[in-house]
Design goal:
Largest sheet of chain A: 6 strands, mixed
Helix content of chain A: 25-40%
Order of helices and strands of chain C: EHHHHHHEEHHHHHHHE
CATH architecture of the largest domain in chain A: 3-Layer(aba) Sandwich
CATH architecture of chain C: Orthogonal Bundle
Structural class of chain C: mainly alpha
Number of strands of chain A: 22
CATH topology of the largest domain in chain A: Rossmann fold
Strand order of the largest sheet of chain C: 1-4
Low-confidence stretches of chain C: 345-350
Oligomer: heterotrimer
Chains: A alpha/beta, B alpha/beta, C mainly alpha
CATH class of the largest domain in chain A: Alpha Beta
Shape of chain A: globular
Radius of gyration of chain A: 24 Å
Radius of gyration of chain C: 22 Å
CATH class of chain C: Mainly Alpha
Number of domains of chain A: 4
CATH superfamily of the largest domain in chain A: P-loop containing nucleotide triphosphate hydrolases
Chain lengths: 539, 371, 350
């Protein structure tokens, strides 16, 4: 039996009593993991007791995901030990970790997109019968889903599902395997506030049976609400582990970033800033769009964006935001309805034409659509201007001129690039996003559409993004900011449109709206219904 | 039996005279003489390099194996010279590269044991001091001779046995390509069979290879499935014999005695033996007397039927061997009237096909399908 | 001082090149040890290979003849990869090109200076025709070109076997199942090496330049690397896909035309010598770069030619194939290893 150092004292959680001497359900001891140019983890010690919800807090890149990948057998540590119930274990693969009762729901889902939900649930599972029909698999899945109260469509192909639905499949898959330790990586990012509360209730119920939850997040309020203890990681190392009762937001924020952060209201504008135009610069008129699978993803959406304003689009991911940004940027053609730019009809215009008219686009998943990861930084930074001199003269492409343009964009983005012929995937996520943002800002003379621009970025990079948007707004450019971070939207937007099931539930003036109202609209309540129901909700 | 010395150019001319006098010997060498070529200079045995290029692997227990035995006989007869060989040479520009490589390694004599056509001629033209011999070739040059075996005679003999033993009268043939050695094989076989069963027919399947056990096995199976009960072919291995054995059918094979792969199904084989021929040609090359010739080794002098298989009845053996004796005595079964597969008379009644015509046979007789 | 090994997302070009060289040396060394263990003298064999390949005009001409189709089939596959398409059908397009060129050469009565360019165009069109259906199926129905191009290879081989042993069979070729000798041939460039060789190099340089220095090439690069990004930037992905795949087929067809009109002079089954499939290896060795194809084809040509030399030295085909396989195997390992580097812990930072 290992001696449990200072943090190994017995303690009481709100839900289950732990007898003195009970070994931690998970004890990570001196874990280290290295990646190219990065110390992902070093000297990390964490104990997770039975009955505990243990929060893992840290900025992006603090090493949370890596640490959990080690605990789940996806990575092997370069140093340190994993001790489960007092016994040292070596997880050669995720199968070993699952066998030890450790299950994880990843931020980036580990699902086979080409397989159905039922197949994904049963994939690599010892309890899956050797021979079974697709129908039987689906029936088993439906049963499991009903038992665990998670609504999924067993026959659907995972690739066709929204992000939120995919998360439900992930959770179902983990719970089906009798996990005793459930690891959740940013689980609420794709949930409405109500759905999040539902999840929290389920988690508390789960740990009350002597199980444990490791809850990864960088949302302080959430962590304070749900967890028993909090471990803060910074730069791959453990900063501290504290009982949640002894913590508050300011202190945790400080521990996380190493300095005070100020959530500032960026809506205030300078005197010399361009005013919001009277006429909309970009409008949607009853636009209907089908998604790649033929389902109606946008249903008669009408929306106006004015020059010099930031319009926030709130909503749970998968409610039509992707299609909205695609139809606005010409990547998708509307089934019906009109898209107007400065009053001119652009409904039939393609991506290149829309971009030429002065609309920039920071796409939802930059590696998937905004960049060609294997191509050079130069090739990637000139993708919006390769048709124009100096990069092209006639049909000739000039690599030298392209590199010069790439250098100026990188300079504006404050990204240091040692070699512009290096594949862009070698850059960090933050630097990629900065380059994409700067590239798009150069062409966004009328409107910039930014879909989840802060996703996967750390606080520093997010602040940079926000400053960029304010800069554009003050120049008189309209900005559409699609985000799942309500605080971000409230800080930045002049107006907020809330999407639900492919429709706009309402457009609110930010100054007069409360976070709870937006949350309710995200759950499908139209704006008009808010007044009557606000009382019962807040009680 | 023809004395091997008769296969030399001089002997060939003598025979030609004999044939002209109406005393033609079946399987003799009755191909036109070449324009007088000067013999190549003699080579000391210890300096000589003799090269063999094969179409299949020397381990095929068939055609290439037989030629490899010939090479070993050469090595035994002239222990000081050097032999080199390359097996499985494709019919592509790689063949030229291989023959060129023989030359650049100092080969004095190159035997191509299959028809490589232009791939060989291109090299021969550029190497006038090297003697070339092309098996199954048809374009002799000043430094390139051709040689082959009169396999159509033993094939006719085994065809008689086939005609007597086939119950359905439907014979199957696993062919390589639609080339003369295949036409003469299918035609001679069916003519032998029809001499005892006028209703016999022959179905051929070409598999585009001389050595492809898998394809040969598939072709054999397909032929049996189509009602054939006796298989023949021109494969360098035993694939279709094994199929016949398994299915209770019979088979006539090529090249060597391979009855152990199907003792019950084995009728006989067209066996070839190039040992004496190769030793003699190399001897002439070393002595400085070699000039290109175009021999076709006669039945009994390089090609013959193999000993009969265990299931071949005595009566069948007798009847077939009687024809063999007649052929050895000067009779030719390839005498008109012979019709082609479209019914046109190609050889008039009473007219006997010459060896040249038999060697270059490129049409199917009536009753042959699939070529 | 402690350190560790880390994997980089992309290898440094110099490191990759060194890894290649080390891999080839290591493969030869391994082969040498095995040969020595079996009683052969590896040094003598190496000396013979070097002498026969580079020490004689015959050898160099042979390599030149071998490299010509390899450059083109390698280029064909490499070009396809640029748009993200795996053209496994270079073999079939090679046959189709050879077939079309032979048809023109045999049946169009015209002087050489008309016939040769005509056969060249026919070769390209033949290759293009052979990839047309897989191209359209990929572009409009998202059918994997991997399967469709592969399957059409067998059709092309059988087609050529059919015409060369049937309707186009040489009336007096007799034994070999081939067409008649073509009335025209590519003029010789250097010894047995015909003009196909410099033309193949020129074509490669032109394609490489087109990909690097034209707007079209840039769009193809982006489209091939990430079709989503192409859609995002408003590039006509489908048009580029169709065009580049047809180009890929045409190049393989031209390889077939050069082989039949320049080297073999008769159409026959087996004429491709597997050049189409070897082209895949050339493209992989070239790491998809158009200019790298020249180096990849040269290496492949030398390996294949060495194989023939080794066979005349008494090694059998399987041994030679095993050595070829070893080289490619070690190259693949070397390529992967060149992604790794040793780093001291102290120097690493976030």
């Amino acid at each position: 039996m290992h001696g449990f150092s200072e943090t190994g004292r017995s303690f009481e959680t709100g839900r289950a009593k732990v007898a003195p001497g009970t070994p931690p359900i998970v004890y990570l001891k001196g874990i280290a993991k290295y990646f190219p140019g990065v110390i992902a983890n070093q000297d990390v010690d964490i104990e997770v007791m039975p009955g505990e919800i243990h929060a893992l807090l840290g900025e992006n890149g603090a090493g949370k995901s890596t640490l959990m990948n080690i605990l789940t057998g996806i990575y092997q540590p370069d140093a340190g030990e994993i001790i489960i119930d007092g016994y040292a274990k070596i997880f050669a693969s995720p199968v070993d970790a699952i066998a030890a009762g450790i299950g994880m729901v990843h931020q980036h889902f580990k699902l086979v997109k080409a397989f159905s939900v039922a197949e994904n649930i049963h994939l690599g599972w010892a309890e899956t019968p050797k021979r079974i029909s697709a129908q039987a698999l689906e029936a088993r899945t439906a049963e499991l889903a009903a038992a665990l109260n998670l609504a999924v469509r067993p026959e659907a192909r995972v690739g066709d599902l929204s992000t939120g639905e995919q998360q439900r499949v992930e959770i179902l898959r983990v719970l089906a395997r009798n996990a005793r330790v459930l690891i959740l990586d940013e689980p609420t990012a794709v949930l409405t506030p109500a759905e999040a509360r539902e999840l929290f209730r389920a988690l508390r119920e789960f740990v009350s049976r002597g199980n444990a939850v490791i809850f990864i997040s960088h949302k302080l309020d959430e962590v304070l609400e749900i967890s028993d203890r909090i471990t803060v990681l910074r730069g791959g190392r453990r900063v501290t582990t504290e009982a949640t009762a002894d913590c508050n937001q300011a202190m945790l924020a400080n521990l996380m970033v190493g300095h005070e952060i100020v959530l500032s209201d960026l809506r205030a504008r300078k005197a010399e800033a361009a005013p919001i135009s009277a006429e909309p610069v970009l409008s949607l008129r009853e636009v209907t769009v089908r998604d790649d699978f033929g389902n109606v993803a946008l249903n008669k959406v009408s929306l106006d964006i004015h020059a010099g304003e930031i319009l926030g689009i709130a909503g749970v991911a998968g409610n039509g935001q992707k299609e909205l940004s695609e139809v606005l940027t010409g990547m998708k053609k509307p089934l019906s309805g009109k898209i107007l730019v400065d009053g001119r009809d652009f409904s039939a215009a393609g991506g290149a034409e829309i971009a030429r008219s002065g609309i920039g686009h920071i796409p939802e998943d930059r590696l998937k659509s905004g960049l060609a990861p294997a191509l050079s930084i130069t090739d990637n930074t000139v993708i919006r201007e390769y048709k124009k001199p100096p990069v092209s003269i006639g049909s000739w492409f000039r690599p030298g001129a392209a590199t010069a343009l790439a250098q100026s964009i990188a300079a504006a983005a404050a990204v240091t690039v040692p070699d512009f012929s290096m594949p862009v995937r070698n850059l960090s996520g933050g630097n990629q996003q900065r380059l994409v943002a700067r590239r798009e800002m150069r062409i966004a003379t009328k409107v910039l559409i930014a879909a989840y621009p802060s996703r996967g970025l750390d606080v520093g990079a997010i602040n940079t993004m926000m400053r960029y948007f304010v800069e554009l707004r003050d120049q008189g450019v309209g900005v559409i900011l699609i985000s799942e971070e309500l605080e971000e939207l409230l800080n930045l937007s002049d107006r907020i449109a809330v999407m639900f099931h492919g429709e706009i539930m309402g457009v609110l003036d930010t100054a007069e709206s409360a976070i709870e109202d937006i949350g309710l609209m995200m759950g499908g309540r139209p704006a008009g219904a808010l007044a009557q129901t606000s009382r019962e909700i807040t009680s | 039996m023809i004395d091997l010395r008769n296969l030399s150019r001089r002997g060939f001319l003598n025979l030609g005279v004999a044939a002209g006098a109406g005393l033609m010997m079946p399987g003799g060498l009755i191909r036109p003489a070449l324009a007088a070529a000067k013999p190549l200079a003699p080579v000391a045995e210890k300096d000589a390099v003799i090269a063999f290029g094969h179409t299949g692997p020397v381990t095929d227990e068939g055609w290439t194996w037989s030629h490899d035995q010939g090479m070993k006989a050469v090595q035994q007869a002239f222990p000081k010279l050097k032999t080199i060989f390359v097996e499985s040479i494709p019919y592509s520009a790689d063949a030229s590269r291989t023959f060129r490589q023989f030359v650049s390694e100092g080969a004095n004599m190159v035997f191509a044991t299959s028809n490589y056509g232009d791939f060989l001629y291109d090299v021969a033209k550029r190497s006038p001091n090297v003697a070339f011999f092309e098996c199954d070739g048809r374009h002799p040059m000043d430094n390139l001779g051709t040689y082959y075996v009169a396999h159509w005679y033993p094939t006719y003999v085994t065809g008689i046995a086939a005609g007597l033993m086939s119950k359905t009268g439907k014979l199957g043939y696993v062919a390589s390509f639609p080339v003369p050695s295949v036409y003469s094989g299918t035609n001679a076989f069916l003519m032998g069979a029809r001499s005892v069963n006028p209703n016999a027919t022959l179905q051929a399947i070409a598999i585009n290879s001389w050595f492809d056990p898998q394809a040969a096995t598939q072709a054999g199976t397909a032929l049996l499935d189509n009602g054939c009960d006796l298989l023949f072919g021109i494969m360098d291995e035993a694939g279709y014999l094994q199929v016949a054995e398994k299915r209770g059918a019979k088979a006539v094979m090529w090249n060597t005695d391979i009855r152990r792969y199907g003792p019950k199904g084995y009728i006989s084989s067209i066996v070839v033996d190039f040992k004496k021929f190769y030793v003699e040609q190399v001897r002439q090359r070393l002595a400085g007397t070699w000039v290109p010739s175009t021999p076709i080794l006669a039945m009994g002098a390089g090609v013959d039927r193999d000993a009969w298989g265990e299931t071949v009845p005595e009566e069948v053996r007798k009847q077939a061997d009687a024809a063999r004796d007649k052929i050895l005595g000067g009779w030719s079964p390839f005498t008109g009237e012979i019709k082609d597969s479209k019914g046109a008379v190609r050889v008039a009644a009473g007219k006997t096909m010459t060896e040249e015509e038999l060697y270059n046979w490129n049409w199917s007789i009536e009753g042959v399908k699939g070529l | 001082m402690s350190g560790r090994i880390q994997r980089l997302p992309s290898a440094h070009p110099t490191v990759a090149l060194l890894a290649r060289a080390a891999a080839i040396l290591l493969a030869l060394l391994t082969a040498g040890v095995i040969l020595a263990a079996n009683g052969a003298d590896p040094l003598k064999l190496v000396a013979q290979v070097v002498k026969s390949t580079f020490g004689s005009r015959f050898g160099l001409e042979d390599v030149g003849l071998l490299v010509t189709p390899l450059i083109l089939t390698g280029l064909s596959v490499a070009v396809g990869l640029r748009i993200g398409a795996w053209n496994i059908g270079a073999e079939g397009q090679f046959y189709a090109g050879a077939f079309a060129a032979t048809g023109v050469a045999l049946f169009v009565p015209a002087p050489d200076f008309v016939l040769l360019p005509l056969a060249f165009v026919a070769g390209g069109l033949g290759g293009m025709a052979w990839i047309l259906v897989p191209t359209l199926a990929r572009a409009y129905a998202d059918v994997s070109e991997l399967i469709t191009t592969l399957l059409l290879n067998f059709v092309a081989v059988l087609l050529v076997y059919y015409v060369s042993t049937g309707p186009w069979l040489d009336p007096d070729g007799h034994a070999l199942a081939t067409t008649a000798r073509l009335p025209c041939e590519l003029p010789e460039f250097w010894g047995a090496v015909h003009w196909g060789f410099p033309l193949a190099v020129l074509l490669t340089v032109l394609v490489a330049a087109g990909l690097s220095f034209t707007r079209w090439g840039y769009e193809v690069r982006v489209s091939g690397s990430n079709p989503q990004a192409a859609r995002y930037a408003g590039m006509p992905f489908r048009r580029h896909l169709i065009l580049v795949m047809l180009l890929s087929g045409a190049i393989a067809g031209i390889a077939g035309m050069f082989e039949v009109v320049g080297t073999v002079h008769r159409l026959q089954g087996g004429i491709s010598n597997n050049f189409g499939y070897l082209g895949i290896m050339v493209a992989v060795l070239a790491r998809g770069s158009a200019l790298g194809v020249l180096a990849g084809a040269a290496l492949m040509g030398i390996i294949l030619n060495s194989g023939i030399i080794l066979q005349t030295q008494g090694l059998n085909v399987s041994t030679v194939l095993a050595i070829t396989g070893l080289i490619l195997f070690f190259t693949a390992i070397g390529d992967e290893l060149s992604h790794y580097r040793f780093v001291r812990n102290e120097t690493a930072s976030v």
